[in-house]
Amino acid sequence: xxxxxxxxxxxxxxxxxxxxxxxxxxxxxxxxxxxxxxxxxxxxxxxxxxxxxxxxxxxxxxxxxxxxxxxxxxxxxxxxxxxxxxxxxxxxxxxxxxxxxxxxxxxxxxxxxxxxxxxxxxxxxxxxxxxxxxxxxxxxxxxxxxxxxxxxxxxxxxxxxxxxxxxxxxxxxxxxxxxxxxxxxxxxxxxxxxxxxxxxxxxxxxxxxxxxxxxxxxxxxxxxxxxxxxxxxxxxxxxxxxxxxxxxxxxxxxxxxxxxxxxxxxxxxxxxxxxxxxxxxxxxxxxxxxxxxxxxxxxxxxxxxxxxxxxxxxxxxxxxxxxx
Length: 324
Known about the structure:
Layout: E1 6-11, H1 18-31, E2 35-38, H2 47-57, E3 62-65, E4 68-69, H3 75-88, E5 93-98, H4 102-109, H5 116-133, E6 135-139, E7 144-148, E8 159-162, H6 166-175, E9 178-182, H7 186-201, E10 213-220, H8 225-238, H9 242-250, H10 254-258, H11 264-270, E11 272-273, H12 276-289, E12 293-298, H13 306-317
Helix pairs in contact: 1-13, 2-3, 3-5, 5-6, 6-7, 7-12
């Protein structure tokens, strides 16, 4: 049993109808997932708008954007969107932000983005000031914001940062309310993420509070070769992204990268495919490394199978109280 750990569901939307998106969210809430994490893909529906729909189609689960790229909105607009959505959702929103893929952002917007660390610091400062204080007056090199929010406002609406680089993790610990991780092995979390997160916590000016560390993790308790290979293709894509490649090298995957493919070692280290006890062992390894929340992505093969979707979620949830 993993004490203090919470299990949520990642709701993917690539190639998924709106009705199916809502169906997945409803199933996840019904089986007991604490949070619904909506994944943003650059060429798909807007996550915050979708979460507005989930707010009226769900009842108790927290609703998290994981993650909304900062280049998609000016920080003042992002804060306004979040506060409005949180009101619609009855105080259930978790705002997950990240820099996204800079190359994608520059292509979409037609202009170069600022340096990640400095630009993110300015962006977070504006968003968190508006949420926590209801007003902001900040003039930065990359982002500026001035104004106030007159609507209902939950000052403790959590803002989580999706990142994994050492300096960005420190920034999350200093300014954000939580950290979201993706495609990181447990060893990297324990050896790199947590020491840098603690360094960031030491620089905080506000109380830290709970500060969740969330791992988005693909899982499957079904023996479906397609699911494993589908994940392998995703890993291969990330190995071509400089930031992820650097992280993989730091995590000990240098030999795997030299092989020029996403190896079985990488797949086994970055996901949880196997029987229930294997899934439990993977979740336990991440929890031991420092993860306190999971956004599990239940791999479901080529076509949506509600029963398999629910079964995979229940398998993850059962780690909280596994049978003897």
